[in-house]
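User: Show me a protein chain along with its predicted structure.
Assistant: Here is one chain, sequence first, then structure tokens.
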Amino acid sequence: MALDRGVASVVGEERAEHGRVGQHQDAARIKEDRIEMDRVEEVRVEVEHVDQCARFAQHIPATYAPHVRSPRDFFKPLAVGAPEPLREIPFRPSRVIHFFPPHLDKVVAKLPDIVPTVDVILGNLEDAIPMSDKHAARAGLVNVARTVDFGDTQLWTRVNSLDSPWGLDDLTTVVTEVGDKIDVIMIPKVEGPEDIHYVDRLLAQLEAKAGLRKPILIHAILETARGVANVEAICGASPRMQGLCLGPADLAANRRMKTTRVGGGHPDYLVRADPGPDAEGLDAPRATYQQDLWHYTLARMVDACVMHGILPYYGPFGDIKDTVACEDQFRNAYLLGCVGAWSLHPSQIPIAKRVFSPRPADVAHALRVIDAMGDGTGAIMLDGKMEDDASVKQCHVVVNLARQLAARDPELAAGYQF
């Protein structure tokens, strides 16, 4: 009825304004026109809504995108005959990841002496290897994997980037020829979960082809701003993910940071104290404090790794001769939650082992707190400091790490008095 009254009103208006035309129109025709106009308006509104949704979707982070696979399928092999993915990443001591160039015979000859002193030995196929030696380095790694006794030291490799001419051959050769010797493959310049998905599927196919029974794990290097922005998605991209490490040199270049250092601080990145009350103007000498260029990135990486149950590492420190600054940088990473760092020279091996092992005094204090707290609830005063349930959790982190390291290192076991 309301529509009919509306149509009648329209007819009246039409006749009033266009008398001759209106005389030839009837109510039924105008009713049809009015319905058609309503339909056109509905379509216009729907199209506008879809357009708004499309514009909004452009700003949704990639981490909100629907999962490609069902959670039930996450732990299924990605190729027929491939080993099942691990449900939990095993924690093995990895305080120091020592890099070596597999194509240099004089370095390879020293490996039997170096291997027992490190937690991880890594055959490097990427940046430090000249283009002319890429094939020799790959062949050298295969030979090392077959001939060197690694004991309980892990063997890792860093392959060339996925967009390089050598990355695919690196993965294919390493997995099919010595995959049973390799614990972890380090993938450089990872920018998003799609890179991990590609490697995940490829490794499964190669493992099946090689008849491997244990999955090879993936370790990603953060070396671009996009990789840092996608760090949470990268950490959760595959059950193969073992950990992440910081690649400060390539990341600095990608960010256009004004530093040529490989890791560490910079004398110009600082804060300055306020002028003292007796200072003669703003130009008077004031104390300055050098800051850490990598604090934000490292802390974000640690959070993402812990959230996904994988392990965070600091990367390289390039100033080999400055062992003091190297130890400071490693200790910053250790305090933030990293479990290890790279070693580019034998002189950095004892630094990393020392820094990423809890001090005996810290272990002794942690044991005292755990003992004094009993069931771990409530709060107490110990040596003038408050200790509560949060303190106990921190102390268990220290003690658990110390026990794991002591099982591998008799010298540490003696120091911890386990």
